[in-house]
C-alpha cells in the first residue's frame, strides 16, 4: 500500500475512534441523566413521590422544592441538564402530585410540617448536606427557611424566590390574602375547587404579555391534572390548609430571622403576578441577603426561563 494511502487510512481510523468515543460518552451521559421516579416513605402517614437524576461522579446535589399547583415534573427538564454535573432530587409535597394526602387532623399541611417532611427526606435519602443546594419556590421556600433556623448546616446554600416570607398582605394577590383567614378562606377554597381547569390553564400565564407567556410540556400538564385530586383531597385543599397556618409560620420566621445562618440567595420574577417583588426586597433587606430581580419574568422563573435557573444553581456551587 502506498504511503499516502496508509496515511489516509490512519486518519480515517483516528476520526472513527473519535466519533465512537464521543458517541459512547454521550450515551454514558444520557444514561446518567435518566430520571428515576419512585416513592420514599417519610413516616407511617407520608409517602412521597420523588425523582432522582443521578450522575456517576456528582460535583454536588441539587434539591428542588415546587410550588402551587406544580408537581415534581416542573423540574424534569432542568434536572436532566443539571445532572450532567450534579445529582438532582425533586419530590411532590404532600397534597400534590402522587404523594400522600393524610387527613388534615393527622397532618396539617402547614409550612412547619412541610419543614419536617423536608428534613426527613434529606435524611432518608442519604444526601450529604455539605454538598447540597436547595432551590425552593412559592410554598416550598418557607419550609426550607424554617429548617435552616434550627439546622444551619442542613444545606450548603438555599435559593428562594417568589414566596411570602412575612405577613404582608399588601404584597399579595387578593385571592392569596383571602386564604389567610375565615370566612373568606372557605369561599376561596370552594372557588378554587370549582375552577380547577381554569386555574391549571391560566395560573402560569397571569401577569405576562402574550410574548412572555410559555407552554408547559404535555407530560407536566398531564401530571398536574392527574395529581390534582387524590384520596379525597385536592391540591387546592392542601393549599388552603397550608394558608390556614401560614401567618403563624411567617411570624415565626420573621421573629427568628437573626438565627438564619445558612447562606441564602433570593431571586424574584420582576413581573410576579401573585407576590410582588417588593416582598422579596423587604425580606432580602431585613435578612441582609442578596436579591436578584429577574427582568421580564413572572411567578415561575424556572419554567419561563430554565437557563437562568440553571445558571443560578451552577453559580451557587461556584460560590462555595
Structural notes for this entry:
By secondary structure, the protein is an alpha/beta fold. 44% of the residues lie in helices and 16% in strands. The chain has a single domain (31-318), classed as Alpha/Beta hydrolase fold, catalytic domain (Rossmann fold). It has an eight-stranded mixed sheet with strand order 1-2-4-3-5-6-9-10, with helices on both faces. The chain has a two-stranded antiparallel sheet with strand order 7-8. Strand 9 (264-269), helix 11 (277-287) and strand 10 (290-294) form a beta-alpha-beta unit. The longest helix has 30 residues, at 3-32.
Secondary structure elements and their pairing?
Blueprint: H1 3-32, E1 35-41, E2 47-53, E3 61-65, H2 76-82, E4 87-91, H3 111-124, E5 132-137, H4 141-150, E6 157-161, H5 174-178, H6 184-194, H7 196-202, H8 218-227, E7 229-230, E8 233-234, H9 235-244, H10 246-255, E9 264-269, H11 277-287, E10 290-294, H12 301-304, H13 306-318
Parallel strand pairs: 3-4, 3-5, 5-6, 6-9, 9-10
Antiparallel strand pairs: 1-2, 2-4, 7-8
Helix pairs in contact: 2-13, 3-4, 4-10, 6-9
